[in-house]
Amino acid sequence: MVFFWKKSETEKEAEKGKREAIIQLIKEGKKDKAIKILERFKDREELRKLLFDLYLEKGNYDKANRLLEEFGEELASVEERALVYDKVGKNKEAVDLYLRTGKFEHILRAGEILEDKGMDEEALKVYERALNMADVFARSDVEERIDRIRKKLGPEEKKESILDKFRKGLRKTREKVQLGLLFGGRSLDEELFEEMEEMFIKADIGVKMSVKLVEFLRKESLKRKLKTSDQLKDIVKEKLLEILKGCESNIRLGKNPPSVILFLGVNGSGKTTTIGKLAYLYRTKGKRVLLCAADTFRAAAIEQLEVWAERSGADIVKKEEGSDPASVVYEGLEKAKKDNYDIVLVDTAGRLHTKEPLINELRKIKRIIQKLLPEEPSETLLVIDATAGQNAISQAKIFKEAVDVTGIVVTKLDGSAKGGAVIPICNELKVPIKLVGVGEKIEDLQPFNAEFFVSALLD
Ligand SMILES: Nc1nc2c(ncn2[C@@H]2O[C@H](COP(=O)(O)OP(=O)(O)OP(=O)(O)O)[C@@H](O)[C@H]2O)c(=O)[nH]1
Ligand SMILES: [Mg+2]
Predict the structure, then answer these.
(1) Cα dihedral sign, 304-385-410-431
(2) Measured over all CA atoms, what is the biggest interatomic distance in the chain, rounded to whole angstroms?
């Protein structure tokens, strides 16, 4: 027997875009159906909010975010926007909005986001604000957070703020390039624009980008009828921020431990050092961290990782020089599962002169990870040396071809005057920048922050 499913009157009316009928459909619990219909009518203002609300209800934050992007923020309340931006990782916007609602749980969440981004001083201030509002049940939790951050910041000598670290990291670039001088109130003539282009290139922003940027500045200064170069600075900042904001992103860990982070990159780019620093960072957050010495190419590489394990308080799995890297990873993951580690950091070798074997090796490592933990690796991070310029970018492309790179770590920002390299790295590779190395010490690793970066480069 064949059954014909007959559409109800309500449904027929709803499909014509009748608001009352759609609301009736929602009341009847046919929400997926309602979403489908509403998506066809999202141009109609009086229906759009219904769609937005349904997205929120269903936890479909990406779509809610797109709706906001497409039709403007009036669509949602401050609270709703904060939630959406939080869920899709627009951290700064989420924090701003959470702080605006003034509700205790929102302020606490803002603090949490800041702390996750490594902005401890800012997080501390926000937690202190939350403490003033906390009721008796919530106080001890907030106090614990405040204690934890104070400990991290150090009791007497206040540690450098992240902006200070970025500033210190980019000191050489700032001094050599002296962009500040160019923005010092000179008249806007051809000579200035030419000098500016040269400076940008010197800062390793890349020739293509430098030419484009100066061209844009020429046009803007005519359009906005600007007279002196100091008026250009904010425009440059805006433009760089626009580029870099798209690359700002946090490390994502899997839902279920252990989370695996795989590190790739050419010789000397800073993989092992970054692993040591990151292990330390997670250890200070109380995570159980296991390092995996899958760079078996040189005995020294294994020893170097051992030193970092000791410094950071992480454990290590290693085998003798020349063993199969994938087998080290296998043992590491077995141990991580058995002994309940939270995070596994996998070091790999980076010999690029033998491209094919290297790529095959990385693919094999990835296969082994996925065999034991199908949801992993949570991140595959490509480590790039900022001082290597355009070369680093072409090498990065080779790695990108080999495996799915989920994020970039830019190291040695402090090492030379080439801090501007972050900009073409972001612009050309189109992969989120998750971390930056601003020195050789164990605490010299920072989440990438576009605003701090631009400010440290130009102010
Ligand atoms: N100044 C500075 N030096 C760094 C930074 N990160 C790494 N280094 C240095 O760069 C050098 C190479 O770092 P490693 O971590 O050994 O690089 P690797 O990618 O593991 O290299 P291989 O094991 O040879 O493939 C070391 O001397 C590090 O101290 C940084 O952010 N700033
Ligand atoms: Mg190494």
Answers:
(1) negative
(2) 86
pTM: 0.67
Could you identify the residue written with the tokens 């020893």?
303
Q: Whose CA is nearest to atom 5 of ligand 1?
A: 412
Which residues does a 6 A CB cutoff place in the pocket of ligand 1?
A: 265, 267-273, 295, 301, 349-350, 383, 411-412, 414-415, 437-440, 444
Ramachandran class of 293: left when φ > 0, alpha when ψ lies in -120 to 50, beta otherwise? beta
CA 267 to ligand 1: nearest atom: 25
Q: How far is the CA of 457 from the centre of ligand 1 (A)?
A: 23
Q: How far, CA to CA in Å, does 269 sit from each of 79, 164, 263? A: 43, 24, 11
Residue of 242, 54, 92 whose CA lies nearest to 67: 54
User: pLDDT for 267-298, tens place per residue?
Assistant: 899 999 999 999 999 988 888 999 999 998 88
Query: Taking Cα atoms as reference points, which of 305, 270, 271, 268 lies closest to residue 290?
Result: 305
Closest atom of ligand 1 to 277 CA is 6
The sign one gets for the Cα dihedral 307, 312, 313, 316 is: negative
Q: Rounded to 10 degrees, what is the CA torsion of 195, 199, 200, 205?
A: 150
Structure tokens at 46: 């009086």
Which residue out of 168, 262, 273, 281 has the highest number of ligand 1 atoms within 8 Å of its CB and is therefore the one to mutate?
273
What's the pLDDT at 2?
Answer: 45
DSSP for 400-453 reads HHHS---EEEEE-TTTSS-GGGHHHHHHHH---EEEEE-SSSTT-EEE--HHHH
How far is the centre of ligand 1, averaged over its atoms, from the C-alpha of 36 (Å)?
52
> Could you read off the pLDDT of 152-193 as tens digits, one per residue?
887 544 556 777 778 887 887 777 767 666 777 788 888 889
**Torsion angle, alpha carbons of 343, 349, 352, 358, to 10:** -80
Dist. CA 183–CA 457, nearest whole Å: 13
Phi, psi angle pair for 226, to nearest 5°: -80, 155
Pocket test for ligand 1, best of 278, 384, 440, 441 (most atoms within 8 A of CB): 440
Q: Return the closest-CA partner of residue 111 out of 102, 101, 98, 100.
A: 98
